[in-house]
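Issue: copy button drops trailing tokens. Both records pasted manually instead:
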Amino acid sequence: MTSISPLSSWNSTASRASAATPHRTQAPPPAATPSTIVALSPESVNDGTPAASVKPPMVWESATRDKVSEAMTKSFSSYAFGGRFSGLGAAMLGQAKLGNYNFSQAMRQPPPSTTPNIYAASGIAPGSLHGNGEDRVALSITTRSGVEVKLSLDSQGDGLAVNMTTSGDLSDAETSALGELAKGFQEAIDGMGQSTPKLKLEGLMQFDQKVLGSVQLHAQVKVRGEPESIQTLDFQADGAQRKVSFSGEAGSLDLKVDASALNTLGSRERQAKALDSYMKQFDQAASRGHGDAGLMAMLKDGFTALHSNTAAPQAATDSPETGKWRLAAEDKSILTGLADFSASVSQAVKFSNPMRSTEKDGFNYEVSQKTEQTGASQDARSLRQQQQSKLSASFHQTLVPGVPLRLTANTESQNYTYHQIEDTASSDAQVAYKDGKMVKASLRQEGSQSEHVMKYFLGKLESDKSTPGNYSVLRDLLPVLGPYKTGELGMTPEKKAEQRQQAMLTLSDEVLLQSYAGQTISLWQADLLPEEGAAAAV
């Protein structure tokens, strides 16, 4: 293990002096016996230490010793991405909070020397590591005033480098806001550094939107395995737009959230309920299609993070919130409360059966939400929100639960079922007004599930089955949301308001996308149109 001395104790002059005067063994003078020649070995020069283990002192770009340099010294001994950058991101933004937001530092370990002098060490430039690491992280933050702050971390086998620059002076509020992101920045780095990468972006998403305009993160990691591969992460967020993409050996994912229309957002409680519903649907899709657990966990973490730190809806006023129209409570009852989004996961395709090259193992999942606000005026407005999901998956499964499937070119290994999944689901909610009165309100939800299963035993096809499933529900919501309702005669205004509020709360749960509706279909049987009853019963 190499011991790294503090920079203040490193003295090149002294090192050179000691290297210039090695201990020597004096040969005896000529005598009656033959003369003896004494050879100097590297071990004798270095107090018995083999030459291959002698490492010159660490070479630094700057003599400055601060918290960042100390963190670099501690983490350098780790060759793993996560270990090399452990604590470094937080230390760098911690310096920004102290007002030190323009600095550069690099360290490099020269190769082991076979001689006791270290003159060659001075020829190595640690600064050349900046921007050239095998593993790298870059963070860019733009303040509301327009100042851009850039941080970079680079690592390769023999060195480590960090850099931070600003395009202008920062106010106290801006340096404080940067410092508040230290923990979130480090969490994002640590997440990518794990053996199974994780999206830990919620801390970065909590940036102060009154002071900071945008946050961007790029990370590139070299996965040292057989074979070697590269995994990348890109994240970008401002007050309205958020997106993240990941690519690695397991597959890829893309997430986008448009939070610019504040008038369609629900309360924190409403958003939390919608997020929970989508988390369950992601789990259902992963289970049904045998999706990669790591990728689906990243989808859930990223989806939750990008929907956080959205501005709370403003109170109803004569002026609309950010969005086309000022929406009434009845309008919002048909909405999920979440900002519009699109998300997709694509698992790397594998061909695990050497006897049947057409059979592949794959998983592709897409889900989205889109909201439209149209109309000539506030009193003639229309609102429509569509949600969709699609799952395409295929996989092999053992015939004996608990026994791993090992498919080879031998027919005795060909005992399995091969599954092909195709599922879709959609939800379409609409309201429309004329002369300020609601004239249309509807909700249509549809879904289809299809599974094709082929069973093989000793390489021979024993069965080939397809199982379809469909449902379709159309509801007229005017009786619930319209201004006039039957059955309210004799009710007090307070009782009417209470009943209406409860109906809208119930509806706000029912408009959530139902990829695998289950009991929800049976609850809506009374609302089915006659021609659709048969389809829903399938």
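Record 2 (pasted manually too):
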Amino acid sequence: MTMTEQATGAHHPQPRPRSGGQSASVEHVTGAKSLIRSLEEVGADTVFGIPGGAILPAYDPLMDSTRVRHVLVRHEQGAGHAATGYAQATGRVGVCMATSGPGATNLVTPIADAHMDSVPLVAITGQVASKAIGTDAFQEADIVGITMPITKHNFLVTKAEDIPRVIAQAFHIASTGRPGPVLVDIAKDALQAQTTFSWPPVMDLPGYRPVTKPHAKQIREAAKLITSAKRPVLYVGGGVLKARATAELKVLAELTGAPVTTTLMALGAFPDSHPLHVGMPGMHGSVTAVTALQKADLIVALGARFDDRVTGKLDSFAPHAKIVHADIDPAEIGKNREADVPIVGDAREVIADLVQAVQKEYSEGQKGDYTAWWKDLDRWRQTYPLGYEQPENGSLSPQQVIQRIGQLAPEGTVFAAGVGQHQMWSAHYIQYEKPATWLNSGGAGTMGYAVPAAMGAKAGVPDRTVWAIDGDGCFQMTNQELTTCALNNIPIKVAIINNGALGMVRQWQTLFYNQRYSNTVLHSGPDATGTEPSAGTRIPDFVKLSEAMGCYAIRCESPDDLDKVIAEANSINDRPVVVDFIVHEDAMVWPMVAAGTSNDEIMAARDVRPDFGDNEDD
């Protein structure tokens, strides 16, 4: 099977190589020019990076390319997260580039982040000259060794003639099967050497054959379980988005009438407003979603991995449920929870086949009755809806800020969130109706993700509004990329949910550490008289900081100004906009399952344990 044939069968395609046929003319070029030509032919249109000594040869021909736009970032971590945001918003492979040593190691966090969240990413790094590798040369780091556990595959290229083949393979591996990051480390002398370039190269990946078509027998078994269950749940993970299977999912859900729960990585895979949607599961999931999984007699997991944030204490998770687990990665099936019916395949093909198999069961008179199940589900939804209280002192509620940003945003807006309380509030209080409208760091939980990811998303989908919802802690990790946005006409909008603290850590200190707030206060704190600092002593002043980086900046402290400020932010599209929302510091994320405890111990609010009645514990 050729690269083109196999890639066409997957649902994560890059643009097909523009080869002009097998008889393309041979060009005499440097390895560096060969690299840029390869990026052009594989369909890369945007690269985020910073030059340095070892990668510098590649930057000279990059200057002449009319098909690859380079965005000069301010930190390599920003390049990596921007490539991830680009990939998540567009469905194409994101590309970042850095030099050797510290440039390459600064990419480790975004590579690990992309690995955890199955994001198609190609990271290209320069390396010291091949004869110097292993000598502790200046700016040498074994980035191939360092990233081996956190990449889908990686390459060390020491010969110029290998560059086109490796780039083609890297993009193919990153975008097919279970997507993920691929690192290409190229020695400086390979970039400088003379070589020939022709396209397409010969692909040779004998051990790489992702299974996309599910086994028919497993599909039939799954359909029988669905039609015989009394309390089924469709547990939908990010793999459904990666496979572009959202239309098929809607058909399956409406055909069966089973409740749907979408994980943090799957928000937008199924419309939040749909009556079959019961919310997000997990540590901070809705009471209904968490409880539905606990009380289910069948869980149909589609592109999800039973991670600890969803399952809580694993041995107490969904004790009465049989498991149908469908995933394109066979290593995920049975890793955390044994599957009664394992299905290896692409989610789009799996769900489409399930629809047909369920319809066949129906035609033979086998149809599930979920009436009693929905009676329970609807009661939980009505009794324990998501909600929040307004601060008694009249200050801004962070939940209300995020909710209004979502409600006032133009249609098709993409939201990128950092990590922490604001991330969970963004998941709860913004309605996600369509895929690729919610970007976040789910598996790694990377602070500093939001601003550069929003930048990458806006570069990939420039016609759509992109909001970064960030915390004041996250924002201070990567806000320098606002300069990149300002200088490259990437007008993102940033909401800083500023509670003066590392909010989620502070919440844990409130609940589990007797309100001992060790090293979570980000502002200067009360002065000697015990009073809070004045507005003039805020360090840093996010409005001044943002203005210094070329942004339009506003501060909002009163609920009375909220809608006006958001409307003003939405109206400005010629530069980045930053809004510093000063919010109440004691707001907490609810519901919550404490780490290491059973999902049965979910708290709907502080000191509020849901009562489900003994009759439901069968």
